[in-house]
Amino acid sequence: MKIVALVGSTRRNSTTRKAAEIVKKEVEKHGITVEIIHFAEVKLPIYEGDLDKEDYPLVVKDFIKTVAAADGIILASPEYHGSVSGVLKNALDYIGAREMSGKLAAIIGTAGSQLGASNTVNTLHQICRNLHAWPLPQSPTIPASYEAFNLDGSLKDEKLQERLEKLGLKLAEELKMRVK
Ligand SMILES: Cc1cc2nc3c(=O)[nH]c(=O)nc-3n(C[C@H](O)[C@H](O)[C@H](O)COP(=O)(O)O)c2cc1C
């Protein structure tokens, strides 16, 4: 079984990546592999509506193939202007129900403010609905993300750390029930 995690930040030292790594670590305890696609490393061009799929650049074809082959997905986004980051939305524009229908999704958000990224996770829930995917209801968000992490990548707030780990556990459990 395999999960792909999409990290919607272009920063190498991304707090969203750190959050995704916590979920990945928990999922992998249950024998499920998680491949992280971090858009600081994988650069997808802007979605081009006039381009036929056969003419997509290799990086896009590989991206679509990876998502299609995964049994589940982790969507992790920083909140940008009250919504999903452009780079994640652009990546998802290449994806359709053909690749996502029936798949489980775990959603996490990070935010610079104390308010958290609830708008972002709500938007990702909507996107999942449109892709016919099944987002887990638990969708933790990390407020004041720049100050939220210890040097070892764990969260300073132990309860929040636990919520991310529980999300990973739930994703692994649900996946094992669905994918035989
Ligand atoms: C263009 C842009 C817009 C942002 N808009 C918001 C916002 O609306 N609300 C908020 O709380 N933080 C906002 N932030 C802060 C980011 O959400 C926050 O720093 C995030 O955790 C960064 O993620 P990263 O470390 O993975 O890059 C914004 C940052 C950028 C660069």
TrEMBL record:
InterPro entries: Flavodoxin/NO_synth, Flavoprotein-like_sf, FMN_Rdtase-like_dom, NAD(P)H-dep_reductase. SUPFAM superfamilies: Flavoproteins. GO terms for cellular component: cytosol. It holds the Pfam family FMN_red. One of its GO terms (molecular function) is FMN binding. Residues 5-180 form the Flavodoxin-like domain. It comes from the Bacteria. Belongs to the azoreductase type 2 family. This is Flavin reductase. It comes from Anaerobacillus isosaccharinicus. The lineage of its organism: Bacteria, Bacillati, Bacillota, Bacilli, Bacillales.
